[in-house]
Every structure is written in structure tokens, then in C-alpha cells.
Amino acid sequence: MNENFGSAGTLPIYLRASIVEPILQACSKEAPFISIYKNTKSLEDISEHLVRKYLYHLINGNFLRYEGHKKIFVLLPSGMELLVVIYAQIQQNPTYHKDLRIKVE
Fold it and tell me: Could you tell me the residue ranges of all domains in the chain?
């Protein structure tokens, strides 16, 4: 994998759109972690740890919010905008989806 999980504030992070997309989709309905993990795992065989890392970076990038009292993740307006961009890129070139990376600073 080419993800770069550097320290916050030092290097940009590159996340795979094929993993980000199902995470954002699941969070559009205010989802607990298990729902997000199942939604993501159905598309790719990835670990819980990797999904948690993606959630961490999507929260720090202000695409998602975690509501601890309800134990759910919520899609923010910027996350919806990112999802629209991902869909637009997929429509332009469907074979590019697996290679598409998202830069989070």
C-alpha cells in the first residue's frame, strides 16, 4: 500500500479513494464503527486497524465528526463534497478508481 501515515502537521497523507468512498457513504447515515467496517470490508479485504487509521485522518481533515456519546461517525459537509468529487472522478474514468488517491493535509 502507498498510504503515508506521517505525523499530523508534518507531511500530507494520501488515502485510497476505494477505501474512503465506502467510509463516507456509511457515515452519511450516522454510523457506528462496526457498520463502517462492514461496509468497507465488503468492497476490499482490509483490517480494522486500517479502517481506524482512515477514520482518524478523515476526522482530522474535517470530513467526518465522531460523536462519542452516541458512538457514531457523522459525515460533515466537506465530507459530502469529497464524496461528490470521488463520484465525478469515477464517472470520468471507472478503471482509475483503484488508483485514485486523496491528499489530506
Answer: 14-98
Query: What's the fold here for domain 14-98?
Result: Arc Repressor Mutant, subunit A (1.10.10)
Grid cell, residue 66, equals 465522531
The three-state secondary structure class of 95 is helix
For 34, what's the count of Cα atoms within 13 Å in the CB-facing half-sphere?
Answer: 1
d(CA 74, CA 63): 9
List pLDDT tens digits, range 52-101. Answer: 999 999 999 999 999 999 999 999 999 999 999 999 988 888 777 778 89
Cα-based distances in Å from 13 to 33, 39, 42, 60: 21, 22, 24, 11
Beta bridge partners, 14, equal: 103
| Widest CA span in the chain | 40
- Which stretch of DSSP H or E encloses residue 100? none
**Placement of cell 459525515 in the chain:** 75
Indicate the average pLDDT of the chain: 88
